[in-house]
Amino acid sequence: MHGNSTLGWTYSEYARLPADRRYEVAKGEVIGTPSQSPYHQLVLGAVLGALYDYAERLGETFLGPIDVLFGEGDYLVPDLVWIRRERIGILSDRGIEGAPDLIVEVTSPATADRDRGIKRERYANYGVPHYWIIDPRQRCVEVYRMFEDPTAPRIIARESFMWTPVLGGPTLEVDVPELFSGLDELLAADE
Fold it and tell me: How far apart are CA 64 and CA 144, in angstroms?
């Protein structure tokens, strides 16, 4: 199972990878990631809680692992995705086939370069408009508004930031310290 040299990995090859870890394919190259830590899961739960009531009125939220199939040789597995209700047709039996409206990654030392590098580049390439990298160690959220300009610099939010997923729709204010509230002991154990 090596993949086609011109396209990289096909979806059928990717789907047959063992389930012992999380695999992704970016630009035709396979990337393996170990299971997520309990701290990672708690931070992700806090993000889901911050989004849930607001975002569920406008679309659907999915916690990873869930396959996002952008194109042949690009199958990524974000931590959280959100899709506007009017775009829900990109869901299939295989996963999400197209660009979600928001992708969230909770980064760690093992995934930081990938989250800020190849994954951000692939998300921008396929038209993901909003990308957040939650960095628990730095206590911040890196906000990429790629719908404005895929090469625009990130906004580093340490207190709060605003998210308006639907043009002209309501705006959500995300309280960044609240995402990490009460998790210091677990973070120390995760290092």
Answer: 20
Rounded CA gap, 143 and 161, in Å? Answer: 8
Contacts of 18 (CB under 8 A, 6+ apart): none
Residues, the chain: 191
Q: Is 16 left (phi over 0), alpha (psi -120 to 50) or beta?
A: alpha
Stretch (H or E) spanning 133: strand 130-135
User: What are the residue ranges spanned by the domains of the chain?
Assistant: 36-190
79-135: per-residue pLDDT in tens? 999 999 999 999 999 999 999 999 999 998 889 999 999 999 999 999 999 999 999
Amino acid letter, residue 25: V
Alpha-helical regions (H) of 20-65: 38-58
Distance (Å) of CA 33 to CA 45, 48, 64, 119, 171: 20, 22, 13, 13, 34
- pTM comes to 0.87
Neighbours of 137 (CB within 10 A): 13
Please provide the CATH number assigned to the domain covering 36-190.
3.90.1570.10
Q: What is the DSSP letter of 93?
A: S
Q: What is the Cα–Cα distance from 155 to 9, expressed in whole angstroms? A: 33
Angstrom CA distances, 77 to 30, 98, 121, 178, stand at 12, 13, 14, 25
CA 20 to chain centre: 21
